[in-house]
Amino acid sequence: MKALPVIAGPLLFALWGSAFALPALAGEIVGPCTGREAEGSTPVCGSGAAALRVIAGTVSPDGRHAFAWRRAGGDPAATGDDALDYLVRLDDGAVLALIEGSYWSFDGMVANHAGEHAVWSPDGRAVIEVVDAKWETRSLNLFRIGAAGEVAGRGDLLALVDAEVRREMLREHPGIDPSRYVLSVTGDPDITLADDGTIRLAVVLEVPKSSDDPLLGFDLVLSAPPDGRPARLVSIQPSSTVE
What we know:
Blueprint: E1 6-8, E2 11-13, H1 16-19, E3 33-34, E4 44-45, E5 52-54, E6 65-71, E7 83-89, E8 94-98, E9 105-106, E10 109-110, E11 115-120, E12 126-132, E13 137-145, E14 151-156, H2 158-172, E15 182-185, E16 192-193, E17 198-206, E18 216-223, E19 232-238
């Protein structure tokens, strides 16, 4: 697998493709995914304990890929925190990667304080996985999809965003303690990923449960070209939507 390097100024971050090998389950094929969100049903890939349930709103624009979940024990109706999320290919149910989230939704119930979001490029060749916890964004991973529908590269964008935002935070607010703040990628405006690898996103930093510390926001533009060049910061500025 080709790694996606992630570089921020003088900082070089570890790559998913090298420092973290994909689990052995990558390559598992559970069976074609049936059902369509547009028709009011949740697509399900395969059957039985190995079945994967597609997470709403994560299907790629070309309809070829999505994020899906299943419980480690195989029973979707079970309770507990054993849900695992995956990037899957829909035509045959191929498991391409174990991703960072632990989101699930079944029979009217959903995971508590867990969010799993997919931001696709219009051509369906790249996706950003956004994993949210109660107070913060826990993961921001970029996946590149190859011509054969495989994962061609994987990179951690959160390390880049976090380092650049905290550097700018200290420049804008010299007396502040960055270690007290947690970072969340917001949906205002929505994060976007262009075919050329241009990423636009907004982040908010806050001290959980504090009404005395200021809420801070920044708008960022990143570049993560499809040719595998290192992801980098293009611009960062204080957000006009956070007061």
